[in-house]
Amino acid sequence: MHDIRQIRENPAAFDAALARRGLPAASPELLALDADRRAKILAAETATADQNRASKEVGAAKARGDDAEFERLRALVADKKAEISRLTAEAAEEDARLRDLLMRLPNLPLDEVPDGADEDDNVEIRRWGTPRSFDFKPLEHFEIPGVKPGMDFETAAKLSGARFVVLKGAVIRVHRALAQFMLDTHIEDHGLQETWTPVLVKDEAMYGTNQLPKFAEDSYQTTNGWWLIPTAEVTLTNSVAGDILDEARLPIRMTAHTQCFRSEAGSAGKDTTGMLRQHQFEKVEMVTICTPDTALAEHDRMTRCAEAILEKLGIPYRTIVLCTGDMGFGAQKTHDLEAWLPGQNRFREISSVSTCGTFQARRMNARFRPAGGKPDFVATLNGSGLAVGRCLIAVLENGQQADGSVDLPAVLHPYLGGKTRISASGDLI
């Protein structure tokens, strides 16, 4: 959410930043509404002063027997009371409209973020690993013979419809091993605190991390008003909502493994086969709460945490910085990690790591108190560390063999009871 005071001070800079995201100027509407709201607040304060003054004079008129003045003043007090009520209600209504407009505007990109319209304008900043050379045509994950027995889309469709999967046997064991490996690495190597959170949240939490009000259709809501989280970013970040933290507590670095739910609104026709784009999936999320001046360093640190998972698994990847036109609503700057999928012969997103500056903290009223200073808003960051299902796809496709079996990364062997492969018939061996 944006600070209206900063928009008042430099509306041209605000509109220029929105233009980098391909959006029209917003400051004229915002400032007009803000000016009207402030004028009504001032008028209500003036009317209150008039009412108070008249109220004091009523008694004096009564005491001296001036009935005409008494009635005039009493009528004036009543009129001012009604005026104050009207102005206060109108100001509150305009304040709500202003807040809603501000909440529907995305975060402003940092100067260093490349300009661009869409994913074609993203900028690659590094690569790791060399894609494996196959002496056969590599298959997509759902086509691999050893994977097919453990990846059941027909049963899932019978139970729930499209974009769901039932995992079983060797495949689900590898999926579970990946999640455990990610958590252990983040906890033991990267110093993140493991956290377990609900997957059902109130409206306020979704507003705090900018899923609401603009993106309600992207998430699922229960009949009694809870929302199913699209990622643990919602719960981890909102864990400090309304708090004033001592600066000494920062940074707070957390990780959580949760179920995630997304409606995939607007994705019709995209990735309809396989389990790349699902309504229900699992993710190991990372969230950092820190001071604004350390946010960019934390962004680089979190990106390295996600990259380390892929490197330990031996999955080739590339890291890109998203352009202004492809960046998420709440982000100031985003790094995407794209894993190499030989079955598709291309890199596909497997992690997105964003710094949001104070954008979410303003929505949540999450602040910190510097030593000897006044409370100020914290900075928030979030990132996938990683999306478990997409990581499973990368492991299966990169480890597939000509006979239909799959060799599994060495770091997973201890999580699989020493088993190293999925056989062509779908057994863990």
Mean pLDDT: 96
Q: Determine the oligomeric state from the structure.
A: single chain
Number of helices: 11
Which structural class fits the helix and strand makeup?
A: alpha+beta
Q: Secondary-structure blueprint of this entry?
A:
Elements: H1 4-9, H2 11-20, H3 27-63, H4 67-103, E1 123-128, E2 151-152, H5 153-159, E3 166-167, H6 169-188, E4 193-194, E5 200-201, H7 203-208, E6 220-221, E7 227-228, H8 233-238, E8 244-246, E9 252-261, E10 280-290, H9 295-313, E11 317-321, E12 333-341, E13 346-355, H10 359-364, E14 367-369, E15 376-377, E16 379-387, H11 388-399, E17 406-407, E18 421-422
Parallel strand pairs: 4-9, 8-14
Antiparallel strand pairs: 1-11, 2-3, 5-7, 6-7, 9-10, 10-16, 11-12, 12-13, 13-16, 14-15, 17-18
Helix pairs in contact: 3-4, 6-11
Structural write-up:
The protein has 429 residues and is of the alpha+beta class. The chain contains eleven helices and 18 strands. Strands 1-11-12-13-16-10-9-4 form an eight-stranded mixed beta sheet. A three-stranded antiparallel beta sheet has the order 5-7-6. It has a three-stranded mixed beta sheet with strand order 8-14-15, with no helix packed on it. The protein is elongated and about 110 Å long. The mean pLDDT is 96.
